[in-house]
Amino acid sequence: MKVLIVDEMHESIVHMPEELGLEVDYFPNIALSEVLEKVSDYEGLIIRSKFFIDENFLQNAPKLRFIGRAGAGLDLIDIDACKKRNIEIFAANEGNRIAVAEHLIGMILSLFNKIEKSHLEIKNGQWKREENRGEELFGKTVGIIGFGNNGEATASRLVAFGCKILAYDKYRYGFGNQYVTESTLDEIFREADILSLHIPLTTETNKMVDKAFFDKFSKNIYFCNVARGELVVQDDLVDALKIGKVKGACLDVLENEKINKLSESQQKSFDYLKNHPNVIITPHIAGWTFESYNRINTVLKDKIARFLGLK
Predict the structure, then answer these.
(1) Residue among 195, 194, 266 nearest 235 (CA)
(2) By the number of CB atoms within 10 A of the CB, which of 171, 216, 224, 281 ranks highest?
(3) What do you get for the CA distance between the two ends of the chain, in Å?
(4) Is 182 tagged catalytic?
């Protein structure tokens, strides 16, 4: 079987041919036009985030049997079009769940304890103690929407900090245990001190977090998004911060992550967020560790092996 890899991958990918008996071509810098010329010869395709796999792309890939996504989320793949062609899709969500969970908790701890703010003040010769009095994570009620790999990994670590976990997943049931309470959205709206999103971007979830969503919370909350920026109406998040409905935010993703190519409206909301003292933004790196980079390959390799009947 011939497999085409079109994104940069961890160096361990070079061992896949000998381990699975595949003929692999690795072109990490290839352009879409070149892929469309070559892909007709391949039965497997591995991508990260370079381009969208749509109907037009698939028309050029008549032999394709599987697509491996080296990361979490399948919003760059037309799933329905793949199903029509009986093309299997593998994501490597398991590969970066530890990294995502650790990154998110690091952001929350930094925000609550004013670590970034006080560090910058120290660099400017300011020694402020009372102004930087922190807030404890212990005892907080955390609402987690989406209890897949990343949501579950995050919950298990927050439990160690003494948090109460309320988790909601529209498509998963029976996951509650002594540490995690399987909840409804209404329970999260009523009780949460912190909200964390761990859901994929779909037509159903696109812009689901808007003014009406924030208004449903009984408490003023801290908001965390390490999933997809398009889940949130960014202007409505800004408005919620302005009125105190959202007390602070930890954002690893944005509505438009090409921050040098923003619309006027996007620039205005981005400027507000990046200058807000209680907002921390990182450049979509929550799952981006050296360890996850390698682990993603391992996950994909195992899923491809099962698909080929080798496991």
Answers:
(1) 266
(2) 224
(3) 17
(4) no
